[in-house]
Specification:
This protein is mainly α. Helices cover 79% and strands 1% of the residues. The chain is built from 22 helices and two strands. The radius of gyration is 23 Å and the shape is globular.
Length: 491
């Protein structure tokens, strides 16, 4: 590794123009993605008279989990294609597909309609991911690469905060459809940046092999890496982290909407920050997406500080501690219906995420045989993809059975032999709750408390935290049996 004697300002100035174009495009792409994805779980199940689609949680879970899982698998194939046809053409295809996909998401209202147009967005995003990272790699060198990727990932989280923040305002002021139009417009800006400012970096000359052959060779290399038991066990363990992490987007917004009374926080905001009231609150409650957005805001402000302390720990020790912190945080958010504990839990979870996630890539590098670092890094997205696929059973099936307030009120009314109309276009989920409240002689929060006491919807936390605990124990055993003996031989 070359010594870097540059000052911070000199290091920043050393980046090629392509680096700044790629970083800006990353910020905008994450703005569009999280501007939709952070609110997506709410939109899919929201009552139709609120502009939502009125889907079940099983339908929500399958759409979000399956498509996002596919998104994280496709870079294994698309990276090869992008290297072959060039970055500018790859990004042009990516952005145009995403623009069409995001726009169409605001026009469909059926399960399969949403499934396929969201898949279109995923195809575009999967094309973008390896290209953006590739541009940063080609635009940096040994002296500024670490800082370059630090800035790049900071852009990810800035976009990850701005997107949901702007969408939260738009959906209240102008309706749900505008968040999808916003995403299409933001990606359109990326397309303009690409055509005006981006210059194709130099590419290696390729042998006369078909793209199919190259993809096959790429997969064979991944398979070669997975034959290393140390790597495969680590990747399996990381599935647990991603399954737990995904609850922040897939399940927590619905849980907060169903069960957490945030009226006290809403009242404080309206009294002390009236200029933010329309953005942060709705119908006397703090919008659920703003709780999730605390995580992104924490990362923007504290990732560098946390990373500084993490560098003083062993990689596996940092990951285990990060898992423990994240499990405690996510457990608190699902255990209680108290808004202050919800906020506290997300703060704690964010600290765990900041400790674990960046360490994972570094740890893969640590166990990589010399000369195979890039090959091993190529496996990074495998546990992310599998974690998404598994998340659908918690966010979908399990939540529907244990924690969905609409499902529980239907069960309660049936147990009392009180007849209720079926949901249809003219009788929505909200209409059902209103009629149930009238027949039971309760207001909204009295009914909510009754369901909470009778059905304990927070028991879903046992499963979510259980995954975290299992991962912590397994990773500790892995450290003791595999990593520490290897470290001892290297001393």
């Amino acid at each position: 590794m070359e010594n870097n004697n540059r000052s911070f300002a000199e290091s920043v100035k050393s980046f090629k123009p392509a680096f700044w174009v790629a970083s800006t495009m990353e910020l905008l792409e994450r703005w569009a993605w999280y501007g939709v994805f952070t609110l997506f779980a709410l939109y899919l199940v929201a009552s139709k008279d609120e502009g939502g689609l009125g889907f079940s949680h099983i339908e929500k879970g399958s759409i979000m989990a399956q498509i996002t899982g596919i998104l994280y698998l496709l870079p294994l194939f698309f990276g090869v294609i992008a290297d072959r046809i060039g970055y500018k053409l790859s990004l042009t295809i990516s952005f145009m597909v995403m623009i069409i996909g995001y726009y169409l998401m605001g026009t469909v209202d059926s399960y399969w309609g949403m499934y396929f147009v969201f898949l279109l967005v995923a195809l575009g995003a999967a094309f973008f991911k390896p290209v953006a990272s590739g541009i940063v790699t080609k635009s940096t060198d040994k002296s500024n690469g670490t800082l370059g990727f630090g800035i790049f990932y900071m852009m990810v989280n800035i976009g990850g905060f701005i997107g949901p923040a702007s969408s939260s305002y738009l959906r209240t002021t102008f309706g749900w459809k505008l968040i999808f139009i916003q995403a299409a417009v933001v990606i359109g800006i990326n397309l303009i940046l690409l055509w005006v400012f981006f210059k194709e970096p130099e590419r290696e000359e390729y042998k006369k092999e078909s793209i199919g052959t190259e993809i096959k060779n790429s997969l064979l290399k991944i398979w070669e890496a997975l034959k290393d038991t140390r790597l495969t066990v680590l990747l399996i363990l990381m599935v647990g982290f991603w399954t737990m992490f995904n609850q922040l987007f897939y399940t927590l917004p619905n849980f907060i909407t169903d069960w957490v009374d945030s009226s006290s926080a809403s009242q404080w905001i309206n009294t002390n920050l009236p200029f933010l009231a329309d953005t942060l609150t709705e119908n006397g409650q703090v919008k659920a997406e703003w709780f999730t957005n605390i995580d992104a805001l924490m990362i923007v402000f504290f990732q560098i500080t946390v990373s500084y302390f993490v560098t003083k720990m062993r990689h596996v020790t940092a990951m285990i501690r990060g898992f423990m912190i994240a499990a405690i945080g996510i457990g608190i958010t699902f255990y209680t219906d108290n808004v202050l504990f919800t906020i506290l839990g997300i703060f704690i979870f964010a600290l765990g995420e900041m400790t674990t996630n960046p360490t994972f890539s570094s740890f893969i590098a640590l166990i990589s045989p010399k000369g195979k670092e890039a090959l091993y890094q190529g496996t990074y997205f495998l546990p992310v993809a599998l974690g998404n696929f598994l998340t659908q059973f918690i966010s979908g099936n399990l939540y529907e059975a244990w924690s969905d307030k609409f499902g529980l009120i239907k069960k309660e009314m049936a147990s009392r032999n009180i007849e209720m109309p079926e949901i249809n276009d003219s009788f929505t989920k909200n209409d059902y709750f209103t009629l149930a409240e009238q027949k039971l002689g309760m207001n909204h929060w009295e009914l909510t408390q009754m369901l909470w006491d009778n059905y304990h919807p927070n028991k879903i936390w046992y499963v979510i935290v259980g995954i975290g605990i299992f991962t912590i124990i397994a990773l500790s055993i892995y450290d003791k049996l595999v990593i520490k003996p290897r470290e001892a031989t290297l001393e």
